[in-house]
# Entry
Amino acid sequence: MKNIWIADGHCDSIGDYAAGKRNLKETAKFGHWDLTRAKQANLGLQFLAAYIESEYKPFQAAWRGLELLEAALRFIDHNSSEVFLVRTQEDAAQLGRTNKLGLLINIEGGEILGENIFMLDLIFRLGVRSIGLTWNERNAIGNGVGESEGSGGLSSFGFQVIERMNQLGMVIDVSHLNEAGFWDVLRHSERPVIASHSCAKALCGHRRNLTDHQLRALGDKKGLVGVNFCEDFLSDTGKATIDDVVRHICHIAEVAGVDAVGFGSDFDGIETTPEGLENVGTFPYLVEKLSQCGFNQNEIARICYGNYVRFLSDVLM
Ligand SMILES: [Zn+2]
# Structure
């Protein structure tokens, strides 16, 4: 199992790069993710999230999003012998066939659009292929999980965004979205959608986690859930180990199907990490654990990588 490919649906590392704190190439004294350890772990695909911090919202959100996008593109340029930008079905077909790490840029926060569809087309041209529709707050698209219960689903602008993202071949990310918005997206999107960094509510009651009903609906739509390594999402005690991550993977595979589950570490976005999964270099331990809990080799390969490649070939154009 040593050389199995790994795909990860969410890390927030580009913030440190944009701030000049780390080059994300060599391993630094702090931080969860860098190219050196990613290569050691055989990472083949990473969604790089440009997380727009709350203090920029709403009026500076577009500038901040573009600043982080520029940083992500600069990182890719500076490391072009080791990484490539994933934009098309053709790029997705290269995954696992080249020893370069594929990077797909996600904007975490639909606030980047304001209420302008042209911004969606613009960031698409600039290489963005995924948007987290909301963070925990409300925006012009819909409501995050941090809004009061009973806050509604998508706005009419939100429905326009879904339609345009379907047309362009962009990954719709529903992590952080409230439940009413989630069901609006599931009903309205013509393509599979992802919850890039979420866990199962049946195992841990956190508001960010997904009910079995939601997990099943994602699976039915050929979508994907990237299991988050956030200790608060993994266990009601707020302390977690690698075994809790395995527990969530097994549960989601049972409820939504083996083809609906993958990894969504949230490295560099979470304050603490589960014991045994301290950084991107530790992914191989998770692979080992999966083979101990009843999945066959083919299933493990799908959970670790294949599901993401299939999902991207369904969504990208
Ligand atoms: Zn997030």
User: Anything to note?
Assistant: Residues 178 and 228 are 17 Å apart (CA to CA). The pocket of zinc ion is lined by residues 108, 175-176, 197, 269 (CB under 6 Å). Strands lie at 6-11, 43-51, 83-85, 101-108, 128-132, 171-173, 194-198, 224-227, 261-263. The chain has a mean pLDDT of 97.
